[in-house]
Specification:
Number of strands: 0
Radius of gyration: 29 Å
Strand content: under 5%
Order of helices and strands: HHHHHHHHHHH
Distance between the termini: 40 Å
Number of helices: 11
Shape: elongated
Largest sheet: none
Length: about 325
C-alpha cells in the first residue's frame, strides 16, 4: 500500500509534464513532482537506501518534509490561480502563502539541524520526538500541511457556486474532498504518535489508526489526482467524440461532393473522385470544411444554374456546417 500514492503521483506528474513551463498551469506540475518525490522517499526501503547517499543522519527525512511542504504550497498556488476570480484577493492570498511557506520551511530546517538524529530511522517523530527540535520539526510541518488542506477545501467550496461548467464543479469537489481527507490522515498520524507514547504500539486503537491511514492516504491522493485530471480527460473525450462525428459527416458528404464537383472541376482543388478511404484522412476536419465550401461554391456558380441539392443532401451539408461552426465557436471561447 505504501507504494500506491507514489505511483499515482508519478503518473500524474508525467501526464502534467507538457504544462511544466506554463505560467498558469506549471504550479500543478511542480506540486505533483514534489509530492511524488516526498512519497517515494517516505517508503522505508527507499528511505534507508537514499539516506546514506545524503550523508546519513536522517537528512533524507528533511528532504522529504521540505518536498512535501513545497508541494502543498505549489498545489495551493495552483488552486488559487484556477478558482479565485478576483485578482486582488488572489494576489493577496498568494503573497500570504509564500510568506507562510518560507517561514515553515525555514523553521523545520533550523529545527532539524539543531536535533540529534544520528541513526537512520523513517519514524523520526516516534524515535526522536522527545527532542525540542524534533517537536518543532513535527508540529510546524503538520500545522502547515493542515492549514494548506483546510484552506484549499475552503477555496474550492467557496468558489464552487461560481463555476458554471459541471466538469469543473466536479473536479474541485474531488480536490476539496481529497484535501479534507489529507487533513484527517495528518490528524491520524498525530494521534497515533501520542497514543504510542502513552500506551505503546500494540493496542486496538493504534491498529485502527494504522488501517485508516494506509487506506485513507491512497484514497486522498486518488481523489486529488482525479480532480486534477478530470477537466483534461473530459476535454479529450469530447475531442475524440467530435473527431468521430466529423469523419462520419465526411463519409456522408463524399457522394454529395462527387456529384456536385463532377462537372465543376475548375472550382475544386482535387480533380479525382473522393473514395471511402477519405474517412482515414489525417486532417478530417480540414477536409470536411474544404469540401463543404466547394459544394457551396459549385451550388452558387453561374455556369451551373440548374444544380440543386436534394433535401437529404442539404440536410447533410447543413449538419456539417453546424458541427464546424460549433467547433470554431468553442475554440474561440477557450
Amino acid at each position: 500500500m505504501e507504494f500506491i500514492p507514489a505511483v499515482i503521483l508519478w503518473v500524474l506528474s508525467v501526464v502534467r509534464l507538457p504544462a511544466a513551463f506554463d505560467s498558469h498551469r506549471g504550479s500543478v506540475f511542480r506540486a505533483t513532482i514534489l509530492a511524488a518525490v516526498a512519497c517515494t522517499l517516505y517508503i522505508p526501503v527507499v528511505y534507508y537506501s537514499v539516506d546514506p547517499l545524503l550523508g546519513g543522519r536522517n537528512r533524507v527525512g528533511l528532504v522529504t518534509l521540505l518536498s512535501l511542504l513545497l508541494g502543498f504550497w505549489q498545489f495551493r498556488t495552483a488552486i488559487l490561480l484556477a478558482a479565485v476570480p478576483d485578482v486582488h484577493v488572489r494576489r493577496r492570498q498568494l503573497a500570504f502563502g509564500r510568506w507562510v511557506a518560507g517561514f515553515a520551511c525555514s523553521a523545520v530546517t533550523v529545527a532539524f539541524l539543531t536535533s540529534r538524529v544520528e541513526v537512520t530511522d523513517p519514524n523520526l517523530p516516534l524515535t526522536y520526538g522527545d527532542q525540542l527540535g524534533m517537536a518543532v520539526f513535527l508540529w510546524t510541518g503538520s500545522a502547515f500541511i493542515m492549514w494548506i488542506c483546510v484552506d484549499i477545501a475552503r477555496v474550492c467550496r467557496r468558489n464552487l457556486p461560481q463555476m458554471h461548467a459541471q466538469v469543473f464543479r466536479s473536479a474541485f469537489a474531488l480536490i476539496a474532498g481529497g484535501c479534507f481527507l489529507f487533513a484527517l490522515m495528518l490528524l491520524d498520524r498525530v494521534l497515533y504518535g501520542a497514543i504510542v507514547r502513552i500506551q505503546g504500539s500494540e493496542n486496538a486503537t493504534t491498529d485502527i489508526l494504522n488501517v485508516f491511514y494506509w487506506f485513507g492516504e491512497p484514497v486522498a491522493v486518488l481523489l486529488v489526482s482525479l480532480g486534477l485530471l478530470l477537466p483534461r480527460l473530459t476535454e479529450q473525450l469530447k475531442h475524440r467524440a467530435f473527431g468521430i462525428r466529423i469523419r462520419r459527416l465526411l463519409l456522408e458528404v463524399r457522394p454529395i461532393w462527387n456529384r456536385v464537383a463532377a462537372n465543376q472541376r475548375s472550382m475544386v482543388l482535387e480533380k479525382h473522385r473522393a473514395s471511402p478511404l477519405i474517412v482515414l484522412s489525417r486532417h478530417a476536419e480540414t477536409q470536411l470544411h474544404r469540401r463543404i465550401v466547394e459544394i457551396r461554391d459549385c451550388e452558387m456558380a453561374r455556369q451551373a444554374p440548374n444544380l440543386h441539392l436534394t433535401p437529404r443532401e442539404r440536410s447533410v451539408v447543413e449538419r456539417a456546417e453546424l458541427a464546424l461552426q460549433k467547433r470554431t465557436g468553442a475554440g474561440a471561447a477557450s
